[in-house]
Write the structure tokens for this entry.
Amino acid sequence: MDSLSPKTNQKPTKILQELDLKHHLHPFTDQKELRLKSPRIIVRGDGIYIFDNDGNKYLDGMAGLWCVNIGYGRTELAVAAKKQMEELPYYNTFFQTSHPPAIELATKLASLAPEGLETVFFSNSGSEANETNIRLVRHYWSSVGKPKKSIIISRKNSYHGSSMGAASLGGMNTMHSQGGLPIPEIIHINQPYWYGEGKNMCPDDFGIMRARELETVIQKYGPEKIGAFIGEPIQGAGGVIIPPDTYWPEIDRICKQNDILLIADEVICGFGRLGTWFGSQYYGIKPDIMTIAKGLSSGYQPIGGSLISTKIANTLEKCGGEFSHGYTYSAHPVAAAVSLENLRILEEEKIIEEVYKNTAQHMFERWNALSEHPLVGEARVKGLMGALELTSNKSTQASFSHKGQAGIIVRDICLRNGLIMRAVEDKMIISPPLIIQASEIDELVNLIWKCLDQSQKELKCQGLLVS
Ligand code: PXG
């Protein structure tokens, strides 16, 4: 078997596709459309590349789903999983029990997190961690005799997960319209999306204005009713919305002044995406709770958690009583052991430091050059997450009349050229593995330029471009 052959799968693509269509209901997928197009069957990964069952190679511009921070194919993580499975494949952390991987991972996370966040509640995903956060915030305020502080403020177009509570925190209408969401006592304010919603103002003023919406809502309902504010340091799934620099310090100030807990959802920004361990450190904010997942294990195992301030943890201990909450697989030993190995690699190979010192700067220079392309209205990037705003008219930066149509065309052309890039309506976004080298960034950006050229022709043919 040559090194490119799949190791476990022996079935032809067609058979796999038929079985998949028959038996597998996919997340965030129109199954009818899937039947017309057939699923891509991915079988292997190596560094920043993935391979399908027919041997086609793709540059994975999305690190899976924003998670494979150390890149594909790190055998050390498989070794860590095997070792842990042989020793203790499972045990729980309920009812006065613990195990070494859980203890070591919690301790390690406390040492990496911003000062004052020293305690972890483990879950299996970002969605579950945010479910925990909703219950934890309300339980905390009840414990200190302020049960009315139950409202949580979030933002439109944010993403915090797919389960009932997490999707309610999220501000996506398409999700709220399915399943009777949001749950009560979640309020959404506007997002700090300068290109889409604030271009008539200077970015710094716009950032302050959007942050002060939080203050307005707090005044409207009264701080005695508001328990927390949640936000992603940079919105990921919403289209890499990078807030103006004024935004987060103002949010931090408003939360502190009104005795409202600040939850930073670090599921995407955590573990190096911005060149710091956490996005909160990048923006210099002090959250009371951080949601973590994805890069914690670089996606090699499902694991998430809530990093909690010492103040909250001590208060809960002092008040006594059980937090009636937990998941069978909270702090799963194999997931914890794999995460520890992932953190060791990130740290010892100085992967995040390299992003901070070199890679992010190279990405910044190459990414900004894409703003010269006739299809691009804005190119924005921070650390290793970036977006291109597609425009139908370069001189006016007009958006396309049918939202999302251009994005899908560009995305499909990227795929045909061996590049995985996500389309969020007409924003093209990337979030590659953090191990990406300067030469690979050049390859990525050159490939994007070529795909944009091809897309421009296609859009012109379809009459979607003004000039
Ligand atoms: N918070 C944030 C900020 C996220 O980005 C979650 C919570 C939920 O995590 P889990 O592990 O439950 O998925 C996420 C997940 C996309 C996409 O298309 C983004 C996510 C998940 C799936 C798709 O951009 N983010």
In short: Residues 438-461 form the longest helix (24 residues). Residues 65, 125-127, 130, 159-161, 232, 236-237, 265, 267-268, 291, 293, 304 surround PXG (CB under 6 Å).
